[in-house]
Amino acid sequence: MYTIFEDASGRTIRASGDMTAGSAEELRTVLLGMLRDRVRAVRFDLSSVRNTDAVSLAVLVGFADIIQSRNYDISLEVILADRNITDLFRLTGLDGTYKISA
Amino acid sequence: MNTKSPVSADSENNVFRFDITPSVLQRLPGPHEFVYILDYDLSALARTGRKTPVELIQELLDIGQILAGQVRLASADITSGLPRGPLSYVLLYSTILSPDFMPQATGLDEKCIFSIGREQIVSGCTISYDSKARTVSRISPDTSVMPASALRSSEKDDDLDDLPVTPDMIEQFVVESDDTLEQVEHFLCSLSDEPERAREIIGESFRMIHNFKGHSALLGLKDFERLSHRMESLLSHFREHPESCDRNCRDLLLRGLDILHESLSDLSENGDVLLPESLEVIELMDEMLPALVSGEQHSAASSREKQRNRKEALKKRSVQRHNIRVDLEKLDHLLNLVGELVIAESMVTRNTAADAGRKENFERSAHNLRRIIDELQSVVMSIRMVPLTRTFRRLLRLVHDLAARSRKQARLRLIGENTEMDKTIIEQITDPLVHIIRNCVDHGLETPEERIRSGKPENGTITVEARHEGGEVVIHISDDGKGLNRKNILAQAIRKGIVSGNPENMSDEEVFQLIFEAGLSTAERVTDISGRGIGMEVVRRNIEKLKGRVNIDSIPGKGTNITLNIPLTLAIIDGMLIRIGKASYTIPLLSIRESFRPSPGQITRTMSGQEFVRLRNEMIPVIRLHKIYNIEPEYRELDQGILINVTSGLRSVCFFADEIIGHHQTVIKGMPEYIGIKSGISGCTILEDGEVGLILDVGHIITMMERQGEVHQKRTGSAAAHPVPDLQEV
User: Fold this and answer.
1) Long-range contacts of B314-320 (CB under 8 A, 24+ apart)
2) Closest chain B residue to A49 measured between Cα atoms?
3) CA-CA to B215 of 20 to 30 Å: which in B183, B391, B444, B622?
4) Can you tell me the distance from the alpha carbon of B645 to that of B656, in angstroms, rounded to the nearest whole number?
5) A to B CB pairs, distance under 8 Å
6) Does B169 touch chain A (CB under 8 A)?
7) Distance between CA atoms of B251 and B248, rounded to whole angstroms?
């Protein structure tokens, strides 16, 4: 479900489809791995995501909370997301943590 | 684009704060009257509604605007496993939907919807929501916000208890509501005539009833609020589904309007009012609404439509003017003072004693004074003048109700609603108009079956048209019904002893005028609407009281026309001052076509002695005013004096006078009762020399002379078109 790429600027997590409860645990593991590896920049390639359920969203929210509450020096960026997904980030306030790029 | 959401959440205290920044305000669309805090649990929503956050947000965007939102986990630690427990999503949301529809539209319980006054959404303030205590407040300045459920409740709000309600507030509410309810009534009655505008019309009605409800709540008028709330709910549904607003629905809404309208006067007198009769209507509305609402879905398209309607409504509202109420007596006093000022100005500036010492400066100052007084006159006159719109629109409802009761199909066309008249006069012409319309519907128009048999459209049409003509307002009421039955009227008049002798010689117009006699009715049966021979007598009496005239024409099978000519009493008008012997009279300038001294060759006389003057191929009857008013004139020969060609409607005559003194502006003052209405005088004025001058009522003089047989003229506007018999050259 989630593929990870790494380059000089950081890591990219690419979702291969909608983010659902079924893949939420994998997402959680991937994200905690970023913290463990002290990655400085994470990009979320959501070009294949059309929908996100409450469990996956909760994981993203929890991840953002950890970063903020523990002052991790890490930048999060959402790339190639469609309009519905950028609306989700923007209108839930998550865009404060996950920078949305075109 | 990365925009930081202007919200923050205080996890420990379960408090969400929405900072109202300029960017939040930018996202608040103008038509959105309602702003809410919505409190979702996205986890629960996924379980119960099988809806993802993405789907929820898109649905909310279909029917409103998310100004700001914040999502928060109850247990944010994801290090030990997938998050469990509520995922709160609290958002600041604007929409055009009222609190009643929010639970249904958002899928939220009432307890999770909090209504915020839009006026509280101002830049720089913070809206704070405590999700645990479920309370909302505004910081800087602090203002409490009602849960939507409180708005739905009929319980009295504590904040409103503290609001002092003064008699002035009640009176203002009554005046404004009177207008509002009339407008809504007009809208509902015009629905069947303009089905293509149904959505717009209902949208506007909804907005007005919503405002009415808000004002009722503000004044603590719970019964008003309760009934208007139900009406608002119905209108809100019909706005989305105008096709379901059938006659029954409209009638029910009209019943609601009636109750509210009729209670306004009680409210004005007592300061409070209970509406026990509203319970039945509320019950009926409560029964009607669920059936209508079930299956209602809000689509993006309808949302856009609503927004468009709102924009239009707001556009209209933005051009509304601010009004204050002024005692009519004060206006009368002001008008009289201006009248006196006009006269005083004339007396000073035209004073011959000042001629000798006149200088250029005086002329300039006098000219300036004249200009200012002209403007003052114009403003003062316009203050008393109000359009006929409200009076006319009441007729729409009347026709709607009467047609339903008499099982006929009728539509009312209104022309010239904006024609302005003195407010006092408008109040007095309402009854005559109502009586005429009742007769039109009940006796004039045929049943749909009869109309079809006569080759007419099923729907009968009544037209009411108003216009200014000369110094008067002409109101023309016509129907396309079966017309008056001359034979029937004559038979009734003979039976009641109104007519004797040889009535067959009477003209149609004379016969038709008989319907204004007391007790005479041409109706075949007496109904609960009309037929007792009282209404039309009231018409004549009221119009004569206003020094107006009623004329009637009818063509069998085609319809009936009634024309009301109502003078503008209490008005300042332009007049031409004429002299006959030692007396001076004023002729309203608007009635004058031209004046001239005839040559002997222009003058002819009939065998009966009626004088005519030939003017550009027209033979115009001459009326010698000195004969009417029994004055010794300076001249008796027509070619030595002056003829003033005057018109009233389509009738034209020439008044004979000794000379024209000149044009002046004059205030028409009412005539004393003892002078009566048959003198051809519509009022009097004070002349520049302090003398009293009489103002001639041109139309009445012509009618008077016609009845006396002094003038023979058909109302075609041209005597030549109806040659006068037995003319001989003088």
Assistant:
1) B314/B30, B314/B31, B316/B204
2) B54
3) B391
4) 9
5) 106
6) no
7) 5
Strand order across the beta sheet in which A75-79 lies: A2-7, A10-15, A41-45, A75-79, A98-100
Phi, psi angle pair for B425, to nearest 5°: -70, -40
Q: What is the pTM of this model?
A: 0.47
CA-CA-CA-CA torsion sign (B635, B636, B637, B639) = positive
Are A59 and B82 in contact, with CB atoms under 8 Å apart? yes
Phi, psi torsion values for B164, nearest 5 degrees: -70, 125
Q: Do A62 and B53 touch (CB under 8 A)?
A: no
Tens of pLDDT, residues B542-577 = 887 776 778 889 999 999 999 998 876 555 666 889
Q: Does A28 touch chain B (CB under 8 A)?
A: yes
Would an 8 Å CB–CB cutoff place B83 in contact with chain A? Answer: yes
> In 10 A of CB B531, how many CB atoms?
18
**To the nearest whole number, what is the mean pLDDT of chain B?**
77
**Nearest-CA distance from B110 to chain A in Å?**
22
Per the CB < 8 A criterion, the answer to whether B663 and B574 are in contact is: yes
pLDDT value of residue B361: 76
Residue B66 touches chain A, beta carbons under 8 Å: yes
Nearest alpha-carbon partner for B102 in B146, B53, B165:
B146
In the chain, the amino acid numbered A3 is T
